[in-house]
TrEMBL record:
It comes from the Bacteria. Keywords: Hydrolase. The keyword Iron does not apply. The keyword Hydrolase applies. One of its GO terms (molecular function) is amidase activity. This is Amidase. Pfam families: Amidase. Coiled coil: none annotated. It comes from Streptomyces atriruber.
Length: 483
């Protein structure tokens, strides 16, 4: 095959034409992992024997006349998904040897679509970091610069894709965990509309894997092209067969437009809470220029945009409101004491986080009501625009920082330091209201690091940002393999 790292779409075409077998694609991917992964450390739990068996079965099925969306395509799976015969520990040492009894819904859907699972990709401890490292599996490095992070929490999946370790991967996102690693590693990812893809079996060990959909969090696809994202989303999307799937089938509306010149796009690169670095601004500008050159209507301002400061505070409150559920009583009381000492005038992100951690059910319901007001604002905005272009984080991939106290970490934005977790405000732009967002690469920084942006679309119109991503891929280029 001509490409070093072919897309799933091209692999499928070659398989259907008889130009290659799944066994050959799988052996090639395994050889690349064994040769190149040691300094990257993306694949934390290889499953090569079963992958080879699955590839042989896929080849036999194709020879017998079968076909399915991912038949014979080598893929990887984020470590946090339950998969029979493989540990699921979320990087938690106390659950190092936990073995789930059944596959996660999305693993089952991958297998049903014919995918060949090469293994699992690395994650941060408890999926709770913008970097990927843990005591069990170590640190995943950025394929473009090993001194920098691959992002988190789907950092192993993004690094694997950038390195050619399989054509597709599945991850999850509550605070940019799909989009940030894609941005840092130069690949594609899609955060679906909240509730679009079932997440059962993507649960902290030891479970149980119940069909309860968590607030804010989604599961979604990662790939090396926009069209591959759509291919994998079509496999992943749909309700849990144990709950809504009993009564409902999924039918996503088509993209609003097929031509770039028909899109109406709002472009953002400034946030009232945190600066945007020059490299990311340049990436946003490249997209804005491509849109304008393609005839799209591009605007920089609108009174319809919901208040970004309030949105960030609300996101922070909702994000951390469930984080203390497993806290020991002593730790919870310490947080309560810190909140009691806050000034009423303290409206910082850190204060919103602490208040969210100890908010009452009444407070949460009020926050949820405010979220609905924001959702209504987004509906009004998307009556005038088809998509919003925005940063994913303020900078390209940053150097590893394993300070055990995240409150002491800082993010450097063009020489100015900000609190580490403040960089999540851009991820929260789509997460808080539950909007779909597609991460696309836009080129590289002056240091040679990948830079991406997110294309945010209307709820349950996921095909709109995905189609825009495909059109922009033609205009500004897409994935490039690390040198």
């Amino acid at each position: 095959m001509e490409q070093i790292f072919p897309t799933a779409e091209k692999m499928t075409a070659a398989l259907r034409a008889g130009e290659v077998t799944s066994a050959e694609l799988t052996d090639e991917a395994i050889a690349r992992i064994e040769r190149d992964d040691k300094p990257i450390n993306a694949i934390c739990v290889p499953d090569f024997d079963r992958a080879r068996d699955a590839a042989r079965r896929a080849d036999q099925a194709r020879a017998d006349g079968a076909d399915s969306p991912l038949l014979g395509i080598p893929v990887t799976v984020k470590e946090s998904y339950d998969m029979v015969g493989m540990p699921t520990n979320w990087g938690m040492p106390e659950h190092r040897d936990f073995m789930p009894a059944e596959d996660a819904v999305q693993v089952s859907r991958l297998k049903a679509a014919g995918a060949v699972v090469l293994g699992k990709t690395n994650v941060p401890l408890g999926l709770q970091d913008i970097q990927t490292f843990n005591e069990i599996y170590g640190t995943t490095n950025n394929p473009w610069d090993h001194s920098r992070t691959s992002g988190g929490s789907s950092g192993g999946s993004a690094a694997a894709l950038a390195s050619g370790f399989g054509a597709l991967s599945i991850g999850s996102d509550i605070a940019g965990s799909l989009r940030t690693p894609a941005h840092f590693c130069g690949v594609y990812a899609h955060k679906p509309t909240l509730g679009l893809a079932a997440s059962r079996g993507m649960v902290p060990p030891p479970g149980p894997a119940l069909p309860a959909e968590p607030d804010l969090a989604v599961v979604g696809p990662m790939a090396r092209s926009a069209r591959d994202l759509t291919l994998l989303l079509d496999v992943m999307a749909g309700p849990d067969p144990l709950t809504h799937g009993v009564a409902y089938d999924l039918r996503l509306p088509p993209a609003r437009h097929e031509r770039l010149g028909d899109f109406r796009v709002l472009v953002l690169d400034e946030h009232p809470i945190i600066a945007t670095g020059s490299a990311v601004r340049a990436g946003v500008q490249r997209v804005a220029d491509a849109l304008a050159d393609g005839g799209a209507r591009v605007e920089r301002h609108t009174p319809l945009l919901p208040d970004l400061t309030e949105a960030a505070m609300l996101y922070r409150q909702l994000l951390f409101s469930g984080s203390v559920a497993r806290f020991p009583v002593e730790a919870y009381e310490q947080v309560r004491a810190r909140v009691a000492g806050l000034s009423a005038d303290d409206q910082s992100l850190d204060a919103a986080m602490l208040r969210g951690m100890v908010c009452s059910h009444r407070d949460w319901l009020e926050a949820n009501n405010r979220r609905e007001v924001h959702r209504h604002g987004w509906r009004q905005l998307f009556a005038e625009f088809d998509a919003v272009v925005a940063p994913i984080t303020p900078t390209p991939a940053f150097p590893h920082d394993h300070n055990p106290d995240p409150r002491e970490r800082r993010i450097d934005i063009d020489g100015v330091e900000y609190p580490y977790f403040d960089q999540l405000v851009w991820a929260g732009l789509a997460t808080m209201p539950g909007l779909p967002a597609t991460a696309i690469p836009t080129g590289r920084s002056a240091e040679g690091l990948p830079v991406g942006v997110q294309l945010i679309g209307p709820m349950f119109e996921d095909r709109t940002p995905l189609r825009l991503a495909e059109l922009l891929e033609r205009e500004i280029g897409g994935f490039q393999a690390p040198k």
